[in-house]
Design a protein that fits this description.
With about 750 residues, the chain is of the alpha+beta class. It has 5 domains: about 110 residues, Four Helix Bundle (Hemerythrin (Met), subunit A) (Up-down Bundle); about 190 residues, Up-down Bundle (Four Helix Bundle (Hemerythrin (Met), subunit A)), CATH 1.20.120.160; about 55 residues; about 180 residues, Histidine kinase-like ATPase, C-terminal domain (Heat Shock Protein 90), CATH 3.30.565; about 140 residues, Roll (SH3 type barrels), CATH 2.30.30.40. It has 24 helices and 22 strands. The protein is globular. The termini are far apart.
């Protein structure tokens, strides 16, 4: 018997053919007793399984893919190495599928699935039968709680080569690190990236429980993680990922409806695996090598059982997921044994290296690398032309000038290209906030939806990493303080579901991040009253709304009526501002009562380069960050005047702006004693504008920031140095420090 030719789009057949060719290429290098090619073949097979329109393809094709999946899983869950039978089976499978594909392309009847394959009990097509879930049965409601070793047997299909040591309620596995530590580092980096992607897909699934693509996406993460963990003999994590994969497989088959309980179980399971991988990364960086890595899973397994059998009432598990669990919590401990060289290095490795280790690798677009290689090639050619012209005068003056201009152009492009290699999208940072909003809104009894805009905006990797804490605090404030309770919103004529919008965009040579909510807004009068009540300000306080809004950045300021685990301790927005300014950024606030609040954060694209305005004071040159510069002008006679006990001010289009004489402040002899002979540079920081008097503007350019060592530690005005064109160093001045200095001079 044969199947009738299927009406399959040619582009789909073409993509299937390309995947099969790649699998065949990997299979050609597979050897008996080796693991070479196992993970690539597994990844390619997953691409084949999850291709578009899989459910519409002929059943023979789908069953053949299920057969290959069974064979490959037996290798991954078993010894992790190919046996001769595995290689033979996969080769026959490739041959059969190639014939099936050729018949499909030509419109001929396709071959029937081999009898020994179709009769195999392990052939499982998701649309035909639900998967078997290897979880312990529920105990009776009045049954005593058994120990972990008694109540939670190991999931099926695990390796027999790694002994299980059970001591009381703890199952301990010894994980031997591979001799090639680069393999483990790659697994660590890819696993963290995979697990980070879970939250976005899961929360999208919560919005639309019937989204098959989201289900498949999360299933793929756990399936890939399970295969890689099994390949490295990380049994504890492998079997835990297997249980989570089984839950997703039940959802894929349609035998389990995606509910909040399912979502909670998946998110909690992802948290456990992420915590384990962070610990693996810490040990790879030399922090406490050989320390057991706990995989606390009892709570998650309980959640999985509840999700799979909601009509049952098992005893609740209240133990939190933690490294040191309370009695009764299931913990599988993986002992990582490092090689001698790594262990020796770890003895002197400081703990600070752990945080940095997570940013040591970065994925770079291949197109960017290609551009850099091309630019290096052009640079070598241009250099040869310039050197040749200088040595032998073979080039005419016009040609030599052209070669120099070409060299300068290539150098600028190379610098710009090198900077972009560190740039990553802010999507990873933004999507972490989705989980925060979900959990926090449930905790405070509110309905809040997070909207993300501009996720593809790129920012320096270091800035993305260091912006996590400030955004975390601002999002928490927006949910806790900004958005009202549903009943309050309805009474005000609003949708009961509040909106928090997190957006990013490139503006004015930098990146602008905004955190906005449509909540109750900030009342300037209430802020002023709170600041006076706490003794944070004296006198009548600021009068304008903008100045009153700035009060929330005062240390110790809080509008919360009671201290909770979310807010009310008076530690928050002042720290946020200092953190952002430490990144050479700035933060502003705008708010309307009853409408909402918007925080605007302005950041440079990178911390390695600065777009600076070079100025001269006397015989010294300084750099002002261009992002902080609003405008430059030479004042007219009489525009600058002295105000009693407030220093000098300049009248700029009706606004009175305090003046800071940079030479006097830095104790350098300035050339322009009369402001009309110099230049006023208007800078803005912390929502305040000041005018800095300099002798001359020398130009604007990109500069590489250099650290200045201990000499300038504790100097708030100098934030770094930049090597100038003549080889000398210009000091980079902090706009925020200059604003504060102006206040000190005025006082």
């Amino acid at each position: 018997m044969t199947d009738a030719p299927a009406d399959i789009p040619l582009d789909r057949l073409d993509s299937i053919g390309q995947l099969l060719e790649r699998i065949a290429e990997e299979l050609a290098f597979v050897e008996e007793g080796s693991d070479l090619g196992l993970l690539p073949i597994n990844a390619l097979l997953m691409d084949l399984e999850e291709g578009p329109g899989m459910e519409s393809l002929p059943s023979a094709f789908r069953k053949s893919v299920a057969v290959a999946r069974r064979w490959l899983d037996s290798v991954l869950d078993g010894s992790g190495r190919f046996a001769a039978a595995d290689i033979t089976n996969l080769q026959q499978w490739i041959d059969w599928l190639m014939e099936w594909l050729a018949a499909s392309v030509s419109g001929q009847p396709t071959a029937e699935l081999p009898l020994e394959w179709s009769q195999s009990e392990a052939v499982a097509v998701a649309s035909l039968a639900p998967p078997a879930i290897h979880l312990p049965a529920f105990p009776a409601a009045d049954a005593p709680v058994k120990s972990d070793a008694e109540a939670m047997p190991v999931a099926a299909a695990r390796s027999e080569s790694t002994p299980i040591i059970v001591e009381g309620d703890v199952a301990t596995f010894t994980l031997q690190l591979p001799k090639d530590l680069d393999l483990l580092r790659e697994f660590h980096a890819e696993s963290l990236e995979l697990l980070e992607s879970i939250e976005h897909s899961v929360l999208a699934l919560e919005e639309n429980p019937t989204d098959a693509d989201a289900v498949n996406s999360v299933f793929r993460v756990f399936h890939t993680f399970k295969g890689s963990a099994g390949f490295l003999k990380f049994d504890a994590m492998q079997r835990f990922a297997h249980d989570l994969e089984s839950l997703l497989d039940a959802a894929r088959s349609g035998s389990l409806a995606v509910s909040r309980a399912v979502i909670d179980a998946i998110l909690k399971g992802g948290d456990v695996l992420s915590s384990c991988m962070r610990e693996v990364g810490a040990q790879l960086a030399g922090d406490r090598p050989g320390t057991p890595i706990a995989v606390p899973s009892a709570q998650v397994l309980e959640m999985i059982r509840r999700a799979l059998a909601p009509d049952r009432s098992p005893p609740a598990v209240a133990a939190p997921v933690a490294t040191a669990p309370p009695p009764g919590e299931r913990v599988e401990t993986a002992v990582v044994q490092t090689q001698a060289p790594a262990a020796e290095q770890a003895k002197s490795a400081p703990r600070e290296t752990v945080a940095a280790s997570e940013a040591t690798s970065i994925r770079v677009d291949a197109a960017k690398l290609d551009d850099m290689v091309n630019l290096v090639g052009e640079l070598v050619i241009a250099q040869s032309m310039v050197i040749g012209g200088a040595e032998g005068s073979q080039l005419a003056d016009v040609d030599r000038d052209q070669a120099m201009r070409s060299l300068m152009r290539i150098t600028r492009e190379l610098q710009r290209n090198a900077t972009t290699l560190r740039m990553v999208p802010v999507s990873g940072l933004f999507r972490k906030m989705t989980r925060l909003v979900r959990d926090l809104s449930a905790q405070v009894g509110k309905q809040v939806r997070l909207e993300l805009v501009g996720e593809d905006t790129e920012l320096d990797r270091q800035l993305v990493d260091r912006m996590g804490d400030p955004l975390l605090h601002m999002i928490r404030n927006a949910v806790d303080h900004g958005v009202e309770l549903p009943a309050e919103r309805q009474a005000a004529g609003k949708d009961p579901v509040g909106i928090v919008r997190l957006s990013a965009a490139h503006e004015s040579g930098g990146v602008v991040i905004r955190v906005a909510d449509d909540g109750r807004g900030l009342d300037g009068d209430r802020l002023l009253a709170k600041a006076l009540e706490k003794g944070l300000i004296k006198g009548d306080g600021p009068r304008s709304l903008a100045e009153r809004l700035e009060l929330i950045f005062l240390p110790g300021f809080s509008t919360a009526s009671a201290v909770t685990d979310i807010s009310g301790r008076g530690v928050g927005m002042d720290v946020v501002r200092r953190h952002i300014e430490g990144l050479r950024g700035a933060i502003d606030i705008a708010s309307t009562v009853g409408v909402g609040t918007t925080f605007t954060i302005r950041l440079p694209l990178t911390l390695a380069l600065i777009d600076g305005l070079l100025v001269r004071v006397g015989g010294e040159r300084y750099v002002l960050p261009t992002l902080a510069v609003r405008e430059c002008f030479r004042p007219e006679p009489g525009a600058v005047s002295a105000v009693h006990e407030q220093g000098e001010i300049v009248n700029l289009r009706g606004h009175q702006i305090p003046v800071l004489r940079l030479g006097a402040y830095l104790q350098k002899a300035a050339q322009s004693l009369d402001p009309c002979e110099g230049i006023l540079v208007v800078i803005e920081a912390a929502g305040t504008v000041r005018a800095v008097l300099v002798d001359e503007l020398l130009g604007k350019q990109d500069m590489i920031i250099k650290k200045l060592g201990n000499t300038f530690d504790g100097n708030p005005v100098v934030s770094g140095g930049a090597v100038l064109g003549d080889g000398s160093v210009g000091l980079i001045l902090s706009a925020d420090a200059l604003v504060r200095a102006t206040r000190e001079v005025a006082a």
